[in-house]
UniProtKB/TrEMBL annotation:
Coiled coil: none annotated. Keywords: Lyase, Pyridoxal phosphate. Residues 26-372 form the Aminotransferase class I/classII large domain. This is cysteine-S-conjugate beta-lyase. It is an enzyme of class 4 (lyase). It holds the Pfam family Aminotran_1_2. InterPro entries: Aminotransferase_I/II_large, C-S_lyase_PatB-like, Class-II_PLP-Dep_Aminotrans, PyrdxlP-dep_Trfase, PyrdxlP-dep_Trfase_major, PyrdxlP-dep_Trfase_small.
Length: 381
């Protein structure tokens, strides 16, 4: 292995949001979605060269970055994206908020799967939009959204369907027929679609294939905003480089107008990192995926051997969605935090029975955290 994912890097005394939450406490943080891996050497070298240049004035998106992204979409997904469709953003969450505000009015509703990454619902809530929550259900080991479950309660004021593919939490990679059902739902109810695809490169299940929502047809293209980023893939989330793919010119202008004077441009170093990631990062990514698969499979075996916990294999992401409903404790996140493991509370995503565990870390750290969880459960019994 050319890259060392077993390397232990001390983040406790850095600016790490993930690790500083438990500053001064003996708690292993496996919650917020960044990894504890050193970013690819190609990115570090590109940043070093840019810093050596020494001038950090206002920056524009590099032409190479757009070219790399367009080629990436063509070669990976057979999606012929045009450079003028791209809107660069300093983070994907801002894209979720802009999509809600640009594509809906206050008297309109937003359809959102649940449980889901919290900023989806906070984007709707912050814009005072009504939410229609479509339940996720575990079917044959995969978490899938049941849009039919809410059709009878819809009143025609809904304007936007928000999707997460791969889904967070749960790690589902939607199949083409599932995406076609989502598109048919959007067409039936005359909905626009915002699809968060930030985890699309982190496919762990052999044979799984990511399909961008907008790539399915011209209709899907014209009614959608697709959000993508190299940030989760290459562990550069703190640099803030994301983009929206908006083929429909009218929707794109509304999106751009909504951000004017509020959402800043992308940082010049973020442009450098994103360009290096998509140009030179694939060998590192291939090895990271191999390492994450090992972590996932090891973790699932250990978790599913514990009384009171159940975990379906995520097809993508480095995030385990663990059912703790039978554990017999009032608050599983607090219970494991007191045992020295910091996890995400399922209530934040929409289901308090669950906890989310980030296994994007060296195996030794993961083993230490799971040993603490096992000990806490034994003592509970």
């Amino acid at each position: 292995m050319a890259f060392n994912f077993d390397e232990s890097i001390d983040r406790r005394h850095s600016d790490s949001y993930k690790w500083r939450k438990y500053d001064g406490r003996d708690v292993i943080p496996l919650w917020v979605a960044d990894t504890d891996f050193r970013s690819p050497p190609a990115i570090i070298e590109a940043l070093r060269a840019r810093v050596e240049h020494g001038v950090f004035g206002y920056g524009a998106p590099p032409g190479e970055l757009a070219t790399l992204f367009v080629e990436r979409m063509r070669s990976r997904y057979q999606w012929r994206v045009k450079p003028e469709w791209l809107v660069f953003l300093p983070g994907l969450v801002s894209g979720l908020n802009l999509a809600v505000r640009a594509l809906t009015r206050e008297d309109m509703g937003v359809v959102i799967p649940t449980p889901i990454y919290p900023p989806f619902r906070s984007a709707a809530r912050g814009a005072a939009r009504q939410q229609r929550l479509a339940p996720m259900a575990l079917t044959q080991g995969r978490w899938q959204v049941d849009l039919a479950a809410i059709e009878e309660s819809m009143d025609g004021t809904e304007q936007l369907l928000m999707l997460c593919n791969p889904h967070n939490p749960g790690g589902t990679v939607y199949r083409r027929e599932e995406l076609e059902q989502q598109l048919a739902f959007a067409r039936r109810h005359n909905l626009l679609v915002c699809s968060d695809e930030i985890h699309c490169d982190l496919l762990l299940e052999p044979g799984a294939r990511h399909i961008p929502f907008g790539s399915m047809s011209e209709d899907a293209e014209q009614r959608s905003i697709t959000l993508m980023s190299p940030s989760k893939t290459f562990n550069i989330a703190g640099l803030g480089a994301s983009l929206a793919v908006i083929p429909n010119a009218r929707l794109r202008m509304k999106f751009i107008a909504q951000r004017s004077g509020i959402v800043p441009n992308v940082d010049v170093l973020a442009y450098v990192a994103a360009t290096a990631a998509w140009r030179d990062g694939q060998p590192w990514l291939d090895e990271q995926l191999h390492y994450l698969r090992g972590n996932r499979d090891w973790l699932a075996a250990r978790i599913n051997a514990l009384p009171g916990l159940r975990m379906a294999l995520p097809e993508a992401t480095y995030l385990a969605w663990i059912d703790a409903g039978r554990l017999g404790v009032e608050n599983a996140q607090r219970f494991f935090e007191q045992a020295g493991v910091g996890l995400s509370a399922g209530a934040d995503f929409g289901d308090p029975r669950f906890i989310r565990l980030n296994f994007g870390c060296p195996r030794a750290l993961l083993e230490q955290a799971v040993a603490r969880m096992e000990r806490a459960i034994r003592e509970l019994g």
